Fold each of these.
Amino acid sequence: MSEPTAGAAAAARLDARPTAAPLLRRMAAFLYEGVLLFGVTFATGLVFAVVMHQNNAMKLRSSLIAVEFVVVGLYFIVLWVRSGQTLPMKTWHLRLLTDDGAPVSPRRALARYLASYAWFLPPLALAGALALPSAWAIFGLVAAWIVLYALAALLHPRRQFWHDALCGTAIVTARPLAPLPQ
């Protein structure tokens, strides 16, 4: 019997890494997440406005943006670390794991949260640079970027989103282990 070579062992480890869930399911969860986050950010904004006596939308705008950033970050980081799933991810049977199949650490969840702004910051920066005249133009640019960014996952060897590849994470299929009792 011959011993496996170091190259063969490395190739076996690469093959054992989690495979990304289908792109369509990940994008369905992304859309559902947006609907859910609308409620989270609305409630956060309402509480902020009442507590800070905000009587004008421009008053304390930067503070509100910072609070929303922290609240949304906590939402994702806590749920990813605790179970690897947000409610939309549970609905679509998806789970966030590290590349080696382990649960995500708080540090890695934070890195993924920050890197996930690649979905929005490039088109918003471009919209600002172009001084786009209307909200519809900005929306169109962001929507086009989201489609391109999602399709860019097809260029990755494991079909991962690029921010997942950067952070060493993967969204995988997570089917229930046993059928629910009836």
Amino acid sequence: MSRFVLVHGALGNHRTWPLSFLEALRAKGHTVEVLDLPGQGNDHTPKESVTMQAYADKVVAQLKTHDEPAILVGHSMGGVVITQAANDFVAGGGALAQVVYLTAFLPRNGQSLLDLAGTPEGQGDQVQANLVVSGEPPIGTFPHSAAKEALFNTTPMDVFNAVDPAGEESQPIIPFTNPVNIEDDRPIVRRYIFALQDRAIPLPLQRKMARDTAVVETVELDCDHMVMYSAADELVTVLDRFARS
């Protein structure tokens, strides 16, 4: 079937994707690849040296490990990463099957994550409201005590309690400030999955981003930001359908 490359968001690593979700997607016949962005998980790049371009370069390197065009999926901040990575990969002659934004940031050329989060549509997000930033260059941490209401607000408590704590870690802030350098509306098939009860990327911002860039299809899931936990079965169904489209 299809090859999926999954890119995690901020404050996480490859363990953000629960094993049960990965196994369910593989059970549909797909190959599924996950990775750690620089400075996260098993990638020991110093967090203080990380940039958005470094994130994108890591994803491009992953895409190049196999000839099969991938379905590139980015969650949350991972949307900025895959935007830059998809642009760079295609500009270099690579081929992508499609790019999927899973309640993710989708910037235009010259925009950063903080630019998008700072728009009127982005007001009230509970990540910025709870993020604790310190140091120079700045590093952010997210209190576990705030995670249920801010990120997992529709996730059943038993599922939340089983979340792997190794999938949560500190986050360099500099990549949030780095604008993408891309060709807007490059001919790439893009799809967007809205999370209707997302408190990290408010729904008005999700909808604005999906309007502002060429997206061929959108899907709505009635869940929180951590879709791979709160609506895992529905997400597998949607991704499998995207792969078959």
Amino acid sequence: MSKKSRKKSSKTPSGIATAKKKTPTKRATTQTKSAKTQRTPASKSTRTVAKAGSHKAASKQLNSSKSVSPPAKAKPALTEGQKAPAFRLPRDGGDVVSLADYAGRKLVLFFYPRADTPGCTREAIDFTRLADAFSAAGTALLGISADPLRAQEKFRDKHSLGMPLISDEKHEMLEAYGAWGEKSMYGKTFLGILRTTVLIGSDGKVAKVWRNVRVDGHAEVVLEAARSL
């Protein structure tokens, strides 16, 4: 054999071997690309689900924030020295009573939770017992609760009460005088009448306010305040 033919024969096997070696590399690259293409949809779908979930969570937060109503503004508390709020409401016997009826006179308003209950009965009887003393001090008396007129009249007749009893079923006067608010009993919170007494001077202004009243001896304390006014 000539030298040229030997060189060609030596190149041919090596070239074939080289081609065989390169082929697996291309297949591996192809498999890698196919694996990537298979993984891509899964990652995209995961991202899409995550985005959808976050969008739903955000929409729930927005909806919940919209459903929550802002807290109601509390009415300013009745303070001594301010003008007494006007009122005009029915009283026992069917008549109507207003603040204007007592212009130029001192007036005691005692707000009680419920007619003919033990504490309210004692309080009303104490004011009745001192009614003449209040009159001598130029002071009128009015009892107020949310009871209907029939209950007020029954309360008056049963205990021979000596002052008009106002029925404020809509809580208009009760709220204006700060006698309606949050109460608690047996671990439960609710809205109701707060036992309160207000002394109004002859000038129509609030002279004294007693809140969370304790019945025993209270009428005597109010009488002394009316006398000194």
